[in-house]
Each structure stands twice: as C-alpha cells, then as structure tokens.
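Hi Q.,

Before the meeting this afternoon, I wanted you to have the hypoxanthine prediction in hand. No need to reply - just skim if you have a minute. The sequence and ligand are here:
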Amino acid sequence: MKNPMKRIEKAVRALESACGKADIAIVLGSGLGDFGKELTNVKEIPYEDIPGFPVTTVPGHAGKFIFGDLGGKRVMLMSGRFHSYEGYSMDEVTLPIRIMSQLGIKNLILTNAAGGVNTSFPVGCLMLITDFINLSGKNPLRGKNMDTFGPRFPDMTNAYDPALREMALESAKELGLELQQGVYCWMNGPCYETPAEIRMVRILGADAVGMSTVPETIVARHCGIRVLGISCITNMAAGVLNQPINHEEVMETGKRVRNDFASLLKSVVDKM
Ligand code: HPA
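Predicted structure with the ligand bound:
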C-alpha cells in the first residue's frame, strides 16, 4: 500500500459522514450476523461505499458497518470481516481497526467461531479469551511503524483487557450463562488443522483455535483500544472427536447459540 494513512483518512471521512461516531465497536463473527437487529436509530454503510475499503472475495456478501443505539451507547457493528486466508494483506485485514481508532473508538469487542482444543469444553460453549498465541507467522505491525497510532514495540501483557473481562464474567453470572476462559491460538487457515497440530497447540497452552481476531487485537492494542474477545466453540478441534470437521457444523452451532451470545454482548455493552 503506497500511502496507508491517506487510505485510512479517506475511509474515516466517508464513514463518519454516513454514520457519525460511536463509543463501542463490535466485530461480529460467524453466526452473529443478525445482531444488528438489537440496535435502534440505525445508520448503515456497505463496505463497497467506503473508498479504499477492500473489495470482498464473495460476491453478494459485501458486508457493512451498522451504527445504532444499544444500552444507552452508540455502537458500531462490523458485519463481515476480512480474513488473511481470503488473500487480504495484513493492512487490509486490520484497516477497519485503524478506522475505528480514528473515529475515537476506545472499546472493541471481537467475536469469532473457534475450534475447542481444551477437551473439557462442550461444543456450543462461549469462551472469554484471556490471551492469544500467534502461530500464523504474520504480524500486522510489520513494516514502518505508524507513529500516529502507537509505539514501535507495543506491550501485549494484557491484550484482552482485565476490566472488560471482569464485566463479561459478571454478565455471564447474571444471565446464568456458562462462560469458559482460555487462550486463543491464531492459525492461518483456510484448511482446518491436523490432529497433530491440535496436539501441538494444546501442549503450547491453547484452549481454542481460529483463523481471525489476533491481527485485529494486535492493531487495536497498538492504537490503545481496549479489547474484549469472545469465542463461540462451534466444534471440537481436529482429532478431539473421531469425526471430520465441516463448515456446516461450525455455522449450525453458531446459529444455535447466537441468542446466548447476543444476550452476553448486550449485557456487557450495558456495563461498559
Ligand atoms: N479451527 C480453526 N478455525 C475454526 C475452527 C477450527 O476448528 N472452528 C471454527 N473456526
């Protein structure tokens, strides 16, 4: 990318004039696509109307930002994210986060579908992300540091904000929802992992694996945005059960638990 800052500024202007500002951003993972119906006073902008925004690889599934009110706050939803496995560059995958930063977002909730590595997790449970392991071999901050956003060597000690995690645990308790906690490991995809890889990441300390969230977390922390990460364990990771993994199962589990997921998100936004 020739001038990343120009690209970001242009997109921010388009987004702000269409939808205004927001207090909290939420990136919706697989299965949570219809969370937008929880918002009132909605304003939307499809990605294709944002100059400099990546062109999606799936025709007809362009994705959009949805701005609206929720629990007395202005919330910005990202419906449809960019994954590295689709061929997007790290700059493209994380462009939305830098845009959020320029829009003044201070709190970000990242959600995703993930495979369960921790064998005590039941399929369909929600997992509060406590930390990440980056096994992708990629880092979105590689290259000249963008000093406007943050330092060359940002700290990742509390990648997932302790205070926000506490709020999520409280919300789960109030709702009577079981919320697991664990470490999320980022794998490149798009193929699912092998059983040997899953045994490896378990030894390394991972509780779940997935193909997103970590680049967004790194860039958000670089910008000083507080991050909360929640995974839906849509399937047991490869080799845990004696059966293959398929995308349909992942989507179906996501749908099955979306009401719990939505209640948890609403309650956390309330507390933020
Ligand atoms: N592996 C990687 N990503 C995933 C999985 C998985 O098992 N399930 C949902 N996303």
